[in-house]
Fold this protein.
Amino acid sequence: MRVSLTPHQPEKIRTPVRAASARGEPDFAAETSAAAMFGKLAVTAALAASLGACSFNSMTAGLESEPSIVTSSVTKPVKAEGIDSTDAEMIKDAVARAENAPTSSSNMLAWSNPDTGNRGTIMAIDKFVGGHGQKCKKFQTTVDSFMGISLYNGETCEMKKGFWVLSWLLRDRN
């Protein structure tokens, strides 16, 4: 690209002059303007950004879906539905300590939580062996709180000697 200076304003305004071929016609192959360079740069940047987005999308695609089969899962403590977690802990401990299932109203197990003021009665315990050979107990209890009296069903399993985990505890909707 050639630059010529206008005689009236030296070195202030520069006007690019188009290169000409030997026949006097404009030589577009030899000319590279700033606009053309900017256009090429913009196209290259857009292409790089779009390809980068594709690879990022393929890396994160698996994060949105959950595996359909979970194997070797460990039972984690669960949040009991509708009651305080310390009440659920008290219920679990009472069920875990029970050697014999309540058979009549005279030997039902009572539990209470001094922290919340809630209490209840464990009315049924059914012992069984869990899927991994551990001792488990299904149970039914009442929860007497300021909201009223509710009936709950739950399950707890012994993960190792003396360490019981509450598998689930749900309000009976009937």
User: Anything to note?
Assistant: The mean pLDDT is 74. The first helix runs from residue 34 to 60.
